[in-house]
Amino acid sequence: MTTGHDMAHIGVVVPAHNEEQHLPDCLQALIRAADHARSRGHEVTLVVVLDSCRDRSATIAAEYGIKTVSVAAGNVGMARHTGVLALPEGIDWLAFTDADTCVPEHWLSAQCGAGTDAVCGGVYLSQWQSLPPALRARYLAHQRQNIRREHVHGANLGISMVAYQALSGFRPLRCHEDVDLIERLKAGKGSITWAHSLRVMTSARCQARAPEGLGALLHTLECACQDTSSFSAQKA
Fold this sequence. Notes:
This protein has helices spanning about 25-40, 55-65, 75-85, 105-115, 135-145, 160-165, 175-185, 215-235, and strands at about 10-15, 45-50, 65-70, 95, 100, 120-125, 155-160, 190-200. It is α/β, with parallel strands linked by helices. The chain has an 8-stranded mixed sheet, sandwiched between helices. Strand 2, helix 2 (about 55-65) and strand 3 (about 65-70) form a beta-alpha-beta unit.
Protein backbone atom coordinates (compact mmCIF):
# COMPACT_ATOMS: atom_id res chain seq x y z
CA MET A 1 0.00 0.00 0.00
CA THR A 2 2.85 2.36 0.71
CA THR A 3 6.53 2.63 -0.14
CA GLY A 4 8.04 5.32 2.02
CA HIS A 5 7.44 8.34 4.20
CA ASP A 6 10.09 10.93 3.40
CA MET A 7 9.08 14.38 4.63
CA ALA A 8 5.90 12.97 6.16
CA HIS A 9 3.28 14.76 8.21
CA ILE A 10 2.97 12.56 11.30
CA GLY A 11 -0.10 12.51 13.52
CA VAL A 12 0.44 11.20 17.06
CA VAL A 13 -2.60 10.04 19.05
CA VAL A 14 -2.53 9.46 22.82
CA PRO A 15 -5.69 8.23 24.58
CA ALA A 16 -5.87 9.15 28.28
CA HIS A 17 -8.23 8.21 31.08
CA ASN A 18 -7.33 9.97 34.34
CA GLU A 19 -3.60 9.89 33.62
CA GLU A 20 -2.37 12.96 35.51
CA GLN A 21 0.35 10.89 37.20
CA HIS A 22 1.96 9.64 33.99
CA LEU A 23 0.96 12.21 31.36
CA PRO A 24 3.75 14.79 31.99
CA ASP A 25 6.52 12.24 31.37
CA CYS A 26 4.65 10.88 28.35
CA LEU A 27 4.28 14.31 26.76
CA GLN A 28 7.86 15.33 27.48
CA ALA A 29 9.07 12.19 25.70
CA LEU A 30 6.72 12.78 22.76
CA ILE A 31 7.87 16.38 22.40
CA ARG A 32 11.49 15.18 22.22
CA ALA A 33 10.51 12.60 19.60
CA ALA A 34 8.60 15.23 17.64
CA ASP A 35 11.59 17.60 17.69
CA HIS A 36 13.84 14.75 16.49
CA ALA A 37 11.45 13.97 13.62
CA ARG A 38 11.16 17.64 12.68
CA SER A 39 14.95 17.90 12.52
CA ARG A 40 14.76 15.26 9.79
CA GLY A 41 12.17 17.11 7.74
CA HIS A 42 8.93 15.68 9.10
CA GLU A 43 5.97 17.67 10.34
CA VAL A 44 4.37 16.44 13.57
CA THR A 45 0.97 17.06 15.17
CA LEU A 46 0.17 15.68 18.63
CA VAL A 47 -3.30 15.10 20.07
CA VAL A 48 -4.39 13.76 23.46
CA VAL A 49 -7.81 12.14 23.61
CA LEU A 50 -9.36 12.73 27.04
CA ASP A 51 -11.68 9.79 27.57
CA SER A 52 -13.98 10.43 30.56
CA CYS A 53 -11.18 12.24 32.43
CA ARG A 54 -12.03 13.69 35.83
CA ASP A 55 -8.50 14.66 36.87
CA ARG A 56 -5.93 17.22 35.70
CA SER A 57 -5.09 15.48 32.41
CA ALA A 58 -6.67 18.28 30.34
CA THR A 59 -4.79 20.96 32.27
CA ILE A 60 -1.50 19.11 31.90
CA ALA A 61 -1.92 18.72 28.14
CA ALA A 62 -2.71 22.45 27.88
CA GLU A 63 0.41 23.31 29.87
CA TYR A 64 2.48 21.50 27.25
CA GLY A 65 0.60 23.14 24.39
CA ILE A 66 -0.85 19.85 23.16
CA LYS A 67 -4.20 19.77 21.38
CA THR A 68 -6.92 17.78 23.17
CA VAL A 69 -10.26 16.30 22.22
CA SER A 70 -12.73 14.94 24.77
CA VAL A 71 -14.96 11.88 24.56
CA ALA A 72 -17.03 9.93 27.08
CA ALA A 73 -16.55 6.52 25.54
CA GLY A 74 -14.71 4.38 28.07
CA ASN A 75 -13.49 2.59 24.98
CA VAL A 76 -9.90 2.67 23.76
CA GLY A 77 -10.77 1.79 20.16
CA MET A 78 -13.18 4.71 19.95
CA ALA A 79 -10.71 7.00 21.72
CA ARG A 80 -7.88 6.22 19.30
CA HIS A 81 -10.14 6.69 16.28
CA THR A 82 -11.51 9.95 17.68
CA GLY A 83 -7.92 11.18 17.92
CA VAL A 84 -7.32 10.37 14.27
CA LEU A 85 -10.45 12.30 13.26
CA ALA A 86 -9.22 15.30 15.27
CA LEU A 87 -5.98 15.54 13.27
CA PRO A 88 -5.65 18.07 10.44
CA GLU A 89 -5.86 17.13 6.79
CA GLY A 90 -2.69 15.98 5.06
CA ILE A 91 -1.51 13.42 7.63
CA ASP A 92 0.68 10.73 6.03
CA TRP A 93 1.59 8.59 9.04
CA LEU A 94 -0.22 7.78 12.29
CA ALA A 95 1.66 6.91 15.49
CA PHE A 96 -0.11 5.60 18.58
CA THR A 97 1.08 5.30 22.15
CA ASP A 98 -0.50 5.40 25.63
CA ALA A 99 -0.51 8.07 28.32
CA ASP A 100 1.46 5.88 30.75
CA THR A 101 4.23 5.34 28.20
CA CYS A 102 7.47 7.13 27.28
CA VAL A 103 8.77 6.79 23.74
CA PRO A 104 12.45 7.04 22.72
CA GLU A 105 13.67 10.13 20.93
CA HIS A 106 14.01 8.38 17.54
CA TRP A 107 10.57 6.70 17.77
CA LEU A 108 8.77 8.69 15.07
CA SER A 109 11.73 8.89 12.73
CA ALA A 110 12.25 5.13 12.97
CA GLN A 111 8.60 4.40 12.21
CA CYS A 112 8.57 6.60 9.13
CA GLY A 113 11.87 5.16 7.96
CA ALA A 114 10.61 1.58 7.92
CA GLY A 115 8.97 1.91 4.50
CA THR A 116 6.04 -0.40 5.31
CA ASP A 117 2.33 0.05 5.87
CA ALA A 118 2.65 -0.47 9.61
CA VAL A 119 5.27 -0.73 12.34
CA CYS A 120 4.72 -2.79 15.49
CA GLY A 121 7.27 -2.12 18.22
CA GLY A 122 8.02 -3.65 21.61
CA VAL A 123 7.74 -2.53 25.22
CA TYR A 124 9.86 -2.34 28.35
CA LEU A 125 8.25 -2.25 31.78
CA SER A 126 9.07 0.75 33.95
CA GLN A 127 9.77 0.20 37.66
CA TRP A 128 10.94 -3.30 36.70
CA GLN A 129 13.32 -3.64 39.62
CA SER A 130 10.61 -2.66 42.10
CA LEU A 131 8.30 -5.49 41.06
CA PRO A 132 8.26 -8.53 43.36
CA PRO A 133 10.75 -11.18 42.19
CA ALA A 134 7.98 -13.76 41.82
CA LEU A 135 6.01 -11.44 39.54
CA ARG A 136 9.09 -10.68 37.42
CA ALA A 137 9.75 -14.41 37.06
CA ARG A 138 6.20 -15.14 35.96
CA TYR A 139 6.23 -12.25 33.48
CA LEU A 140 9.50 -13.45 31.94
CA ALA A 141 8.16 -17.00 31.73
CA HIS A 142 5.07 -15.69 29.96
CA GLN A 143 7.24 -13.75 27.50
CA ARG A 144 9.41 -16.81 26.79
CA GLN A 145 6.30 -18.87 26.03
CA ASN A 146 5.26 -16.27 23.45
CA ILE A 147 8.70 -15.34 22.13
CA ARG A 148 7.89 -16.41 18.57
CA ARG A 149 4.58 -14.61 18.42
CA GLU A 150 4.19 -11.33 16.59
CA HIS A 151 3.26 -8.89 19.36
CA VAL A 152 1.05 -5.86 18.77
CA HIS A 153 1.06 -3.09 21.37
CA GLY A 154 -1.21 -0.06 21.14
CA ALA A 155 1.47 1.76 23.13
CA ASN A 156 3.92 1.32 20.23
CA LEU A 157 2.15 1.23 16.91
CA GLY A 158 2.39 3.12 13.63
CA ILE A 159 0.42 2.86 10.40
CA SER A 160 0.19 4.88 7.21
CA MET A 161 -2.92 7.00 6.82
CA VAL A 162 -3.61 5.33 3.47
CA ALA A 163 -3.65 1.89 5.08
CA TYR A 164 -5.65 3.12 8.09
CA GLN A 165 -8.35 4.64 5.90
CA ALA A 166 -8.50 1.53 3.71
CA LEU A 167 -9.25 -0.48 6.86
CA SER A 168 -11.80 2.09 8.10
CA GLY A 169 -9.66 2.60 11.19
CA PHE A 170 -9.95 1.15 14.68
CA ARG A 171 -13.12 -0.66 15.55
CA PRO A 172 -14.90 0.45 18.76
CA LEU A 173 -13.40 -2.32 20.88
CA ARG A 174 -12.68 -2.02 24.62
CA CYS A 175 -9.58 -4.20 24.22
CA HIS A 176 -7.42 -5.71 21.47
CA GLU A 177 -8.34 -2.89 19.10
CA ASP A 178 -4.67 -2.76 18.10
CA VAL A 179 -4.46 -6.51 17.35
CA ASP A 180 -7.71 -6.34 15.38
CA LEU A 181 -6.38 -3.50 13.21
CA ILE A 182 -3.15 -5.31 12.38
CA GLU A 183 -4.92 -8.63 11.74
CA ARG A 184 -7.12 -6.88 9.17
CA LEU A 185 -4.03 -5.30 7.61
CA LYS A 186 -2.37 -8.72 7.36
CA ALA A 187 -5.51 -10.19 5.80
CA GLY A 188 -5.33 -7.48 3.16
CA LYS A 189 -1.68 -8.33 2.43
CA GLY A 190 -0.38 -5.10 3.93
CA SER A 191 3.31 -4.86 4.79
CA ILE A 192 4.37 -4.80 8.44
CA THR A 193 7.70 -4.16 10.16
CA TRP A 194 7.99 -6.10 13.44
CA ALA A 195 10.37 -3.69 15.14
CA HIS A 196 11.17 -5.66 18.29
CA SER A 197 14.15 -3.43 19.12
CA LEU A 198 12.11 -0.21 18.80
CA ARG A 199 10.79 -0.28 22.35
CA VAL A 200 8.85 2.14 24.50
CA MET A 201 8.84 2.30 28.31
CA THR A 202 5.36 1.60 29.64
CA SER A 203 3.92 1.47 33.13
CA ALA A 204 4.17 -1.76 35.11
CA ARG A 205 1.01 -0.99 37.07
CA CYS A 206 -1.34 -3.89 37.76
CA GLN A 207 -4.45 -1.68 37.86
CA ALA A 208 -5.67 -2.23 34.32
CA ARG A 209 -7.12 0.66 32.29
CA ALA A 210 -8.05 -1.66 29.38
CA PRO A 211 -9.52 -5.13 29.99
CA GLU A 212 -7.17 -7.87 28.77
CA GLY A 213 -4.36 -5.36 28.21
CA LEU A 214 -0.87 -5.34 29.73
CA GLY A 215 -2.11 -4.16 33.11
CA ALA A 216 -4.67 -6.96 33.18
CA LEU A 217 -1.94 -9.49 32.38
CA LEU A 218 0.24 -8.19 35.20
CA HIS A 219 -2.72 -8.31 37.58
CA THR A 220 -3.40 -11.93 36.62
CA LEU A 221 0.23 -12.87 37.16
CA GLU A 222 0.27 -10.98 40.47
CA CYS A 223 -2.80 -12.90 41.66
CA ALA A 224 -1.15 -16.17 40.64
CA CYS A 225 1.88 -15.24 42.75
CA GLN A 226 -0.37 -14.51 45.73
CA ASP A 227 -2.25 -17.79 45.29
CA THR A 228 1.04 -19.69 45.22
CA SER A 229 2.25 -17.91 48.35
CA SER A 230 -1.00 -18.67 50.19
CA PHE A 231 -0.84 -22.33 49.18
CA SER A 232 2.78 -22.59 50.33
CA ALA A 233 1.89 -20.96 53.66
CA GLN A 234 -0.98 -23.39 54.20
CA LYS A 235 1.26 -26.37 53.52
CA ALA A 236 3.84 -25.03 55.96
